[in-house]
Specification:
single chain, alpha/beta, three-stranded parallel sheet
Length: about 70
């Protein structure tokens, strides 16, 4: 079965939880390919705490447009 690609908009409390599920492989066939947050420090923390191959965006619009 093919992977289902997810983009997470907002990596605060709930978004970080979702990112954790995906990076730990707890979502069957799910993979995070992009994250977005308006706060640069949240993006930096997410990349540090949940390393992976995903693009980072400074807004939801950027993520969706790409």
């Amino acid at each position: 079965m093919e992977k289902v690609k997810f983009g997470i908009i907002g990596v605060g409390n709930m978004g970080t939880s979702h990112l954790g599920f995906l990076t730990r492989g707890e979502v069957k066939n799910g993979v995070c390919t992009a994250i977005a947050d308006v706060k640069a420090e949240r993006l930096k923390a997410a990349k540090s705490n949940y390393p992976g191959e995903y693009a980072c965006y400074s807004s939801a619009e950027e993520l969706i447009d790409d």
